Structure formats: structure tokens, C-alpha cells
Q: What sequence folds into this?
């Protein structure tokens, strides 16, 4: 949770709209940092490109469609 909160703080200071979602996977609690939402897939992919330019991002951001 502390890592997720630290990332949220950095993303917010860079101007991103951010939320944290918790998930239980195989009995362990994880925290996902969500950025967005965007109006369409093209805008979401552009957001991923912006995230890839942030030096503090570890791993590969991806698009998740939410209905």
C-alpha cells in the first residue's frame, strides 16, 4: 500500500488523474494504481505513451477497458 500511495503522489504531482484499487490474488492483497479514465481507446493509448515517459514508472502500463 505504501508503494501504491507513493506512486499516486508522484503521478498526481505530474498532473495525472489517479485512483487506487485493491485486489486479493491467491490470498494476498495487492494495490493497483489506475490512471484515467479516457473517453476512447486512442486517448487511453496516448495516456500510456505519456506514462512511459515518466522516469519513476516501473513495469509496463497497459489499457484496461471498464464498462
A:
Amino acid at each position: 500500500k505504501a508503494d501504491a500511495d507513493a506512486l499516486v503522489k508522484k503521478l498526481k504531482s505530474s498532473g495525472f488523474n489517479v485512483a487506487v484499487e485493491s485486489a486479493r490474488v491467491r490470498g494476498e492483497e495487492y494495490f493497483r494504481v489506475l490512471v484515467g479514465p479516457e473517453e476512447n481507446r486512442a486517448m487511453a493509448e496516448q495516456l500510456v505513451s505519456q506514462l512511459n515517459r515518466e522516469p519513476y514508472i516501473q513495469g509496463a502500463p497497459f489499457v484496461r477497458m471498464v464498462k
Observations:
- Strands lie at 18-25, 28-35.
